[in-house]
Amino acid sequence: MIGNTAIANYLKFSGHKNIDLKAALIDCDGILYDSMKNHTRAWVKLMKKNGIKCTRDEFYLYEGMTGAAIIKHMFKKGAGKNITDDEAWELYKVKGRYFKELGDIPVMPGALAMLQTLQQNGIERILVTGSREPSVLERIDNDFPGLFAEERVTAHDTRHGKPNPEPYLKGIAKAQAKPNQCIVIENAPLGVQAGHTAGCFTVGITTGPINEKELLKAGADIVFPSMEAFVTALPELISDFKNTLT
Question: Which pTM does this prediction carry?
């Protein structure tokens, strides 16, 4: 059965048993929205304006870090320059403007069905994202009405971005759950690593150029090749959890 071996192994090696699945902790960019194409374009434009060479694909690897952390990393790597938090956030505002200029981003195909399936099975949905992009965050309640808890974790709520587990640990706390009562749904290695380190069963979905092996290496318990594949498997995955945990 889909996911059963992964779940059974996870529970066996973690010592978790007889605990019901309570919450799904869900990333935003690349999971709810097909936004990473525009994010990477905006990042490359910002870096080139500042004389830093880079490629679009490398920003998929940094996805989940705070904007300030990405900027600090890129300036140190590409220009040998240390910049302050204030400087980093000012540059991040410029990146945000470039991102907005690229226009509206589409909802990820299958994202709505995923949230509806989780809701129908009594699993709480909590947003956990490193994003500060108002244009994205403000859309969530309109695009997914009634499908997210009011509690959410964004870059405003954390000191450390992914791969630090802090964002997911805060998501677990907001769900009033234990780590082994939550699944994490991610599409990038740093986010997968954060979910795994937080102690959650972590689902990787390859919605971008990062391949399955990279997500597994980062700690994903199971990987799906697309959001549509995950949505198709989700009812059985939830059932496998319930059967394994009884």
Answer: 0.86
Containing H/E element for 127? Answer: strand 124-128
Question: What does R_g of the chain's alpha carbons equal in angstroms?
Answer: 18
Residue 7: per-residue pLDDT: 55
Separation CA 4–CA 240 (nearest Å)? 5
Three-class DSSP category at 153: strand
Q: Starting at the edge strand that comes first in sequence, how are the strands of the sheet with 152-153 ordered?
A: 152-153, 124-128, 23-26, 182-186, 201-205, 222-224
Cα 191 to Cα 218: distance, rounded to the nearest angstrom: 9
With cut-offs at 50, 70 and 90, classify the pLDDT of residue 19. Answer: low
Lowest mean pLDDT among 13-17, 153-157, 221-225, 239-243: 13-17
Mean of per-residue pLDDT scores for the chain: 88
Q: Which amino acid is located at 150 in the chain? A: E
Neighbours of 1 (CB within 10 A): 12
d(CA 61, CA 71): 14
Q: Which domains does the chain have, with CATH numbers?
A: 4-34+106-245 (3.40.50.1000), 36-101 (1.10.150.240)
State the pLDDT at residue 18: 47
